[in-house]
Specification:
heterodimer; A: alpha/beta; Rossmann fold; 2 domains; eight-stranded mixed sheet; 13 helices; about 35% helix; globular; B: alpha/beta
Chain lengths: ~350, ~350
């Protein structure tokens, strides 16, 4: 993205916590290179919940691992700057980065079972974060761990603290993960599909905890999800990704009421809404489909990556790459024919 | 008319070893489920993980033997039948699985996979079967050239189409779809839902659609049954369930599903349930939902509420607190919502 675009983004939030600028990540595989993320920029304001939305393979999880400095060996960050509370992460050593993870950035993953160590008690794992990053003594760490479990809504935290992960249900494990992630009161929490593996009644509780983190502790949250219901519930702003690029960004209400990119419109039309079936009869009872599938990018896009699936695709889309442009307040879209009427501006 | 499927008092208890030594415990996975599906009807079976919905599906398929109860397929009880006797009825019910990666044999081509039920039931000669597979591929929206491909060469959505072609090859009267879309991406989910509805209207089979995704269940089903801890707690037609849920669990479940509309979602009243579903090894006395129910009363711990008519036989619910005229018990929203941004 251009420098002017970045400035426009920054202006919308009073205080920027995290700034990602022109991030590109490439995977080196036996079958050649894959561009997982291509020129992605966004920033996260204080107390903001930013949703990164897209289908599998769009690069949203790779973005999270790149921010955390946890990219696998096969991946290479070919460009980009990540600035957290004024510190450029690129200038940091491995150990400095490690100190940052867990203290200033917390993370929560989709599968809480594989992210917790099965041979240590919950208390010990939370305690480790506190002793390592905050220099707490053992007893003090234990007390704080009890408080943290209480804060994420785990009943009887004094008993729970000496239990092992396998003794907890999926929802409880995810709460433990959140407790660990917020142990050092990080300014940014990255949550990668935090509720995808959970039942809806449990999901509602986890989303409430994230809401209270934002309001009580002032945590800024990057929420990675494919669930538009979750986005509607908790996000302030939304970034839609497709094939490694940001294709649309808007405040949440505007994104749902006036989606501009045909892919965003497709996604919104593909999810059933309550009461929708009752209004459709016989062969009319259909959801909007997006034909085809997400392409695997072997080189940075030189055209619109969505054009093979797009009902509006024209010659221009096949030969030129649309860049992000403003469409109203803080609403940006990368499409030559955006909006309901296809760009008659 | 004989229903295509009639399940009566289905019970499936698993014995598991518990703790150290030889002590065993009983998991009451399915504990007295009755349901029926008429010809050409789609019944949605919803519930959270551990509610027993997949076990019901497997009992109907006879992938597992029920502990007790009967499963009637087009009027014939299949629970007591020997393998040989069941073989003839096997044609009548087929299944699509959740995971399109593990439910297709990786060593067979997609054409062979779709043809297998035809071969198994000795239907048609080789040429006729091959033609039929070609037709099936077209029906499920796959290029006939895909027949020579192996499952690993296909995307998740394409694999699920192969699974549908296999399940429908012998024109069963009942299709059991166990979480058929939950492993797929949003846009692919839409196309599989559309395909399923299209095929169902076209071929007229009945369908048991098992899923935890309420929005999808509402979209495809004519009637819906809600399961909690091995039991059906409420069942009625689609409109009524969503408009007038009676059982407190159903009310809470519906309120917990986020609506993809920020303005509406942030104004909705929600009922937040405390705790989690109890273990089916040691279910609570009386009403199994009482431990999480926001309005449980002492009587709920004493007797188990039976599935009873609340609005004629079209709407059944199991709750002591439903009023004499079938009124839903009032639950005040337990969550204060922040105003929209």
């Amino acid at each position: 993205m251009t420098a002017t675009g970045q400035a426009a983004d920054t202006a919308s939030t009073t205080q920027t916590r995290l700034q990602v600028d022109d991030l590109s990540v490439r995977f080196h595989t036996d079958d050649g290179d894959i561009c997982a993320v291509d020129g992605l920029s966004f920033d996260l304001g204080a107390r903001e919940v930013l949703a990164l939305v897209g289908e599998s393979g769009c690069g949203k999880s790779v973005t999270a691992t790149a921010i955390l400095g946890l990219l696998p060996d096969a991946a290479e960050m070919t460009s980009g700057r990540i600035v957290l509370d004024g510190t450029d992460l690129a200038g940091l050593s491995r150990s400095q980065l490690r100190a940052l993870r867990g203290s200033k950035i917390g993370m929560v993953f989709q599968e809480p079972m594989t992210s917790l160590n099965p041979v240590f008690t919950v208390g010990r794992q939370i305690g480790e974060v506190l002793t390592r990053h905050l220099g707490h003594r053992k007893r003090q760490a234990r007390e704080v761990a009890v408080e943290l479990l209480d804060r994420v809504g785990i009943p009887a935290p004094r008993q729970r603290i000496s239990e092992y992960p396998h003794q907890l249900s999926g929802g409880m494990r995810q709460r433990v993960m959140i407790a660990m992630a917020i142990a050092c009161n990080p300014s940014v929490l990255i949550a990668d599909e935090p509720t995808t593996a959970l039942d809806v009644t449990i999901q509602a509780g986890i989303l409430d905890i994230m809401r209270s983190l934002r309001s009580d502790l002032g945590t800024s949250i990057i929420l990675i999800t494919h669930d538009l219901g979750v986005v509607a519930d908790i996000a302030d702003r939304v970034v839609i990704m497709y094939a490694g690029r940001k294709i649309e960004q808007a405040p949440v209400e505007q994104l749902f009421s006036q989606p501009q990119h045909p892919y965003t419109m497709g996604l919104l039309g593909a999810v059933p809404r309550p009461g929708m079936a009752a209004m459709m009869h016989g062969a009319d009872r259909r959801l909007a489909e997006i034909p085809g599938r997400v392409p695997v990018m072997t080189a940075p896009a030189s055209d619109c990556s969505f054009h093979p699936r797009c009902p509006r695709a024209a010659d221009r889309c096949r030969s030129l790459r649309p860049e992000l442009e403003g469409r109203g307040h803080d609403h940006r879209v990368a499409c030559f024919y955006p909006g309901e009427e296809g760009g008659a501006q | 008319m004989t229903p295509v499927l009639e399940v009566t008092d289905l019970v499936k208890h698993f014995r598991v070893r518990s703790g150290l030594g030889d002590s065993t415990a009983v998991v009451r996975a399915v504990d007295g489920v009755s349901l029926r599906i008429d010809r050409g009807e789609v019944l949605g079976l919803v519930g959270e993980s551990g509610s027993g919905k997949s076990t019901v599906a497997k009992c109907i398929m006879r992938l597992i033997e029920p502990t007790s109860g009967t499963v009637r397929l087009n009027g014939t009880d299949i629970t007591g039948l020997s393998r040989r006797q069941f073989r003839a009825l096997r044609r009548e019910v087929h299944m699509v699985f959740q995971d399109p990666y593990s439910s297709l044999n990786p060593r067979m081509t997609c054409g062979q996979i779709a043809e297998e039920p035809l071969r198994h039931h000795r239907i048609g000669r080789r040429v006729a079967r091959s033609e039929r597979v070609g037709d099936l591929f077209e029906k499920v929206g796959l290029n006939p050239q895909m027949r020579a491909r192996y499952p690993h060469e296909l995307s998740g959505g394409q694999r699920q189409r192969v699974g549908l072609a296999r399940a429908l090859a012998v024109e069963p009267s009942l299709l059991i779809a166990d979480e058929p879309i939950s492993a797929l991406d949003v846009s692919v989910q839409a196309s599989i839902v559309n395909l399923l509805l299209e095929l169902q209207q076209d071929m007229g089979f009945s369908c048991l659609f098992v899923a935890h995704d309420l929005a999808a269940v509402e979209f495809v089903s004519d009637r819906i049954a809600v399961m909690y801890l091995g039991k059906i707690v409420e069942t009625t037609d689609r409109q009524r369930l969503f408009a007038e849920p009676r059982m407190p669990y159903t009310q809470a479940l519906l309120s917990a599903v986020p609506v993809p509309d920020p303005v509406e979602q942030r104004q909705r009243e929600r009922i937040l349930l405390p705790g989690e579903m109890p273990s089916p090894i040691n279910p609570p006395s009386g009403c199994s939902f009482r431990t999480r129910c926001p309005i449980a009363e002492p009587q709920c711990a004493e007797a188990e509420p039976l599935l009873a008519e609340v609005d004629g036989d079209a709407h059944l619910a199991a709750c002591h607190l439903i009023g004499p005229a079938g009124e839903a018990p009032k639950i005040r929203s337990t969550v204060e919502r922040a105003p929209p941004p």
